[in-house]
Amino acid sequence: MADRSVPALDRELADLQPALRWREWMRRIEAVLFASAAPVSREDLARVVGQGAPVDLLLGDLAADLEGRAFELAPVAGGWMLRTRPAYAPAIRAAAHVEDQLLDLGEFDIAVLAAIAWHQPITRDGLKDIFGKEISRDLIGRLHARDLIATGPRSPRRGAPYTFVTTDAFLVAFGLESLQDLPDQEQLQDAGVVGSA
Questions:
Q1: Which residue from 139, 143, 153 is spatially nearest to 174, judged by alpha carbons?
Q2: For 152, which of 7, 50, 121, 196 could close a Cys bridge (C-beta 3.0–4.6 Å)?
Q3: What does residue 74 show for φ and ψ, rounded to 5 degrees?
Q4: What is the structure's pLDDT at 192?
């Protein structure tokens, strides 16, 4: 039987000239990001390069190397991803069957999702207070099924209702590095998305 063990990864690449070593580390990071459907943390990327190699500088050089290409390096959900530039979305939709990958959320679904993002952890009663009407379990279920929200800690109120929080998939879907990247009320007013209070 053949030995199918995976050879150890030579992280240091000491036998390569510095410029070639740097290029190889960049390509390793690119390969890891290309193969991953989720954001990859800086710590995970550091596992494929030499001890003490400046991952942030490698990421910067990779981003520059991808300039002018159809995809880009993006900080998302506390990690890094390769993603198609928005300008190419129509071409992808025309050539590929991506309808099942689209969020397909209604305007009210997005409003509820935004309220959860801004006020998390929040209960259905908290959402009712914001919207002035009951938020259906079906709507919460749709957001949960798309992995955009998850169940948060139980509320300390009577009956200990469940709360809802956004997920890393929410950050990925909306291209956010963290919840701090959410627009604030003033930015939304300036964009004409919400009225002034």
A1: 143
A2: 121
A3: -135, 135
A4: 60
pLDDT for 157 equals 83
Label residue 184 exposed, middle or buried (CB < 10 Å: 0-12, 13-18, 19+).
exposed
pLDDT (0 to 100) of residue 3: 58
Give the C-alpha separation, 165 to 117, whole Å.
7
> Residue 81 above 90 pLDDT?
yes
CB 162 within 8 A of CB 123: yes
Cβ atoms 194, 181 nearer than 8 A: no
| Mean pLDDT value of segment 120-125 | 93
In the numeric block, which tokens belong to residue 47? 């596992």
Do 171 and 77 contact (CB within 8 A), yes or no? yes
Q: What stretch of H or E contains 25?
A: helix 18-35
Q: What is the pTM of this model?
A: 0.67
Residue 63, CB half-sphere, CA atoms under 13 Å: how many?
11
- 3-class SS of residue 122: strand
Q: What does the DSSP 8-state code read for residue 40?
A: B
How far lies 41's CA from each of 46, 59, 63, 86, 158, in Å?
Answer: 9, 12, 16, 23, 39
Angle at 135 between CA 129 and CA 140, to 5 degrees: 125
Which pLDDT score, from 0 to 100, does residue 32 have?
Answer: 96
